[in-house]
Design goal:
single chain; alpha+beta; Beta-galactosidase, Chain A, domain 5; 4-stranded antiparallel beta sheet; 3-stranded antiparallel beta sheet; 1 helix; 7 strands
Length: 143
């Protein structure tokens, strides 16, 4: 009987940790573009696709423990890959119109105490096409 109680306590203590690890594991990288009040949360999924997880009020890490409650969408959809609305449409030199962008890298630069610049580089899987997504976030209104 004593062993059963110990197992239940251990399960209760470890369960939140397991849920947090699983929620974070669905994304290779999380990118926050935020101000004092708002946040754009982007994530890189297992296929290296950049996804917009949520946009709205600023959240802390405890609010983001279970990312499965958000319906993520491709952050910058391109023509020819199962989307109805595209952010980019290119006709390549061989006439192909399909562009399949995947995440390459990010660079976050603090321009001042109130301004952050986030640059995300995407690359086509086949063609030598690169796309830079640039977000400039003002922490607070400067006027």
């Amino acid at each position: 009987m004593k062993q059963s109680i110990h197992f239940k306590i251990l399960t209760i203590v470890l369960l939140p940790f397991v849920v947090y690890v699983n929620a974070q594991a669905q994304y290779k990288d999380l990118i926050k573009v935020q101000t004092d009040d708002n946040m754009l949360l982007l994530g890189v999924n297992g296929d290296n696709k950049l996804q917009q997880i949520t946009y709205g009020r600023k959240m802390d890490d405890t609010d983001l423990q279970d990312l499965s409650v958000f319906k993520a969408y491709e952050a910058y959809p391109s023509f020819g890959v199962n989307v109805s609305a595209t952010g980019l449409r290119i006709t390549h030199s061989d006439g192909n119109m399909t562009t399949d962008l995947v995440y390459q890298t990010k660079k976050i630069t603090i321009l001042s105490k109130d301004v952050t610049l986030t640059e995300i580089i995407l690359k086509d899987k086949v063609y030598p096409v690169f796309v830079s997504l640039v977000y400039k976030a003002l922490t607070r209104f400067l006027w």
